[in-house]
Structures are given as C-alpha cells and as structure tokens.
Amino acid sequence: MNGINLDVLIETYSTLKQYITPKDRQEAADALTSVLVDLLDDNSMKEFASTDSFTKNSFKEYATGFDDEDEDENQDY
Fold first, then answer.
1. What digits encode the pLDDT tens for the residues 36-53?
2. DSSP H helical ranges for 1-77
C-alpha cells in the first residue's frame, strides 16, 4: 500500500467531502481516484471505492476505461 494508511485516507476523504458542494462531489472523487490508482494496490483501491457512491462510480469508470484500453490494444488494425 506504499505507506498510505487506508483508514486515514477514508476518514480524510469523508471529512473533506463535507466541504465540497454536492454537485462537485463526483468530479472531486474522480480526481482523487485518478491519483490513488497509482498509489494503492488493487485491494486497497477497491476498499476505498466502497466508501460512498461517488468513489464507487469513480472506480467503476476507471476500471471500465482500463478494460476498454486493454481491448483496444488486443484489436487487430
């Protein structure tokens, strides 16, 4: 997990989320997810993604995009 305490990360996210307007929360979760995918292992990322609906949607979008890139690389052109 590269020294990042997942419990602290989740608590920090939950605290800061209160100060983000509801309409901006998904974008904030998307931005945070884009950083965390490089810092957390798969299991930790999945656990963080289960924090709330915003993180779940962000992780789902990331995972779907990642699968699409893999499929593109395997296509014959």
1. 999 999 999 999 999 999
2. 6-17, 25-36, 42-49, 53-73
